[in-house]
Design goal:
mainly alpha, 15 helices, globular
């Protein structure tokens, strides 16, 4: 299969590529920009991991419309127009119109793993929130943002992961809603991103920590912008880490419902991403001058542990 690119909407390259080559580009990009996430995808069957790479790259393209270096030089009006164009383009892809290789892998993924367009539109709506909103008064406001930019990823990928057949005929009133668990994992991941990236976000004039929490712990915006490390900051961060871990815990029951070939990689991704919270603690909450991450050896050690957990029913 050859893919014809459109100069009006380039997303990868302008040279026609095969579908296999296009998926390889998605793999390379996922490996480069989402190392912890990528490691988990390698534990999936090939057909599922390729679909996840395609979805990841679509999400990254959506995020870049607002957060790339090039985007930072554009006006709000220009950014808004780009989001509108991306939304219309996405609707066309869901109708089967292919103009570049990213369209092709998304279309192929939708053909194999049918799903709703709504999470994709919701994610674009989340990017629109960043156009005019750089503060969140309450956690309830922030939760909407977290759903849109990350909880949606859980909905995009749950059809790829699949549900264990043992649960398909079970009374759902007695089982967690897999969609709710998928959203919870996305929110947990986004809360982790927010805590890890406080220092980077302040450089863009954005504060995602709820204003009500800053007030609760008597830590001002001025303190945050100055990167002030004091007792109030540490108590504030402890509170945020507890909240993020609670959202990870909410997602765990849903992971147990997944198909047998998806439980291990999802457990691995969940545990490794949650490990970033441990790293923040080890840095004594100094995310202004350091980037929290899980080191390579911890990742290697956690893979067999995640496998054992994935087998427990």
């Amino acid at each position: 299969m050859k893919i014809i690119n459109s100069d009006q909407n380039p997303t990868m390259t302008k040279k026609p590529l095969s579908l296999e080559d296009a998926y390889e580009i998605c793999r390379e990009e996922t490996a480069q920009w989402a190392k912890t996430f990528y490691l988990g995808t390698l534990l999936l069957p090939p057909i599922k991991r390729r679909a996840i790479w395609a979805i990841y790259v679509w999400c990254r393209r959506t995020d870049e419309l607002m957060d790339s270096e090039e985007a930072q030089k554009r006006s709000i009006t220009e950014l808004s127009d780009r989001l509108d164009q991306w939304e219309e383009h996405t609707k066309e892809v869901f109708k089967g119109k292919i103009t570049n290789e990213l369209d092709a892998v998304i279309a192929d993924t939708l053909n194999i793993f049918p799903q709703s367009i709504q999470p994709y539109l919701d994610m674009i709506a989340g990017q629109r929130m960043d156009l005019n909103k750089n503060r969140y008064e309450t956690f309830e406001e922030l939760k909407i943002y977290c759903y849109r930019v990350a909880g949606t990823v859980g909905l995009m990928t749950q059809g790829v992961m699949g549900i264990d057949p043992a649960y398909t005929s079970a009374p759902w009133s007695k089982c967690p809603d897999p969609s709710e668990a998928a959203i919870a994992l996305g929110i947990a991941n986004q809360l982790t991103n927010i805590l890890r990236d406080v220092g980077e976000d302040r450089g863009r004039g954005r504060i995602y920590l709820p204003q009500e929490d800053l007030k609760k712990f008597n830590y001002s915006e001025e303190d945050l912008m100055a990167g002030k490390l004091n007792a109030q900051w540490k108590e504030l961060m402890k509170f945020q880490l507890i909240r993020a871990r609670e959202w990870f815990a909410r997602s765990e029951e849903g992971v147990r419902l997944l198909s047998s070939d998806a439980r291990w990689p999802v457990w691995t991704s969940l545990r490794l991403y949650r490990g970033i919270l441990d790293s923040i603690e080890q840095l004594d909450y100094d995310v202004f001058n350091n980037r929290a991450y899980v080191n390579k050896w911890m990742k290697i050690l956690d893979i067999p542990i995640s496998f054992i957990i994935s087998q427990a029913r």
